Amino acid sequence: MSTKTRQPNHGSHLGNAATREWLDENIPPVGPPAGAEQQSHLIRARAYALWERAGKPDGDADRERFWYVAEKEFREAHARG
Description:
Elements: H1 17-26, H2 36-53, H3 60-80
Helix pairs in contact: 2-3
């Protein structure tokens, strides 16, 4: 049995329903804010998934872009909660 979390299957459209579904499944919607370590882990995991889906491009700019998108998704999910 795999311990991997199900990821949305979509291209580069980060604002669609699949992404919101993934966030709802992986980020606690209610309760105290996530600790810094947990927050960093969730953002890192999401950024990695985005990087993989994009074909694992090289370069610092790409890595920063995926981190930024993952961090933005995390903040938006917590703002909704």
